[in-house]
Amino acid sequence: MSTERTEAQVRPGVAADLDALTAIYNHYVRETPITFDTAVFTSEERRPWLLSHPEDGPHRLMVATDTDSQGVPGNAQRILGYATSSPFRPKPAYDTSVEVTIYLAPDAGGRGVGTLLYKALFEALADEDVHRAYAGIAQPNEASVRLHERFGFRYVGTYREVGRKFGRYWDVAWYEKDLQPN
Known about the structure:
By secondary structure, the chain is α+β, with helices and mostly antiparallel strands.
């Protein structure tokens, strides 16, 4: 993993990002236990997911893009990754809780992109009626654990062997973060 910092900007996701976002996600579907989806998606199959993350409200999609060699944002920016806040559970009493996640392009890890994405996401959520954020991290994934702990998430428990992918069972460790001062 590279320790080189990446020149990037973070902005809300838009419809034009759908193909690149789908390609990033499909990498994790095909190659890793990070997501428990087991079949790749077409962009059209992912469109409802994108549309469920508007530019305002508690359910956001933030996208990190690279900048050109002078550090000036270009028109055809490569997407380095994305972060989302999504409904935690479908029942109304859960409306003030969100589940957050980050997916990075395979070559974008270890360069601060995840930190930029979470910083922007949590700033965007600061004025929303959101009490807690939760993150489920398929184990092992030390990089994700470190990122979440850096942002104040605390470990709350592990679901043992909760998902089966690639012919084996995987644990998911759960983390939570207070988003509103008590």
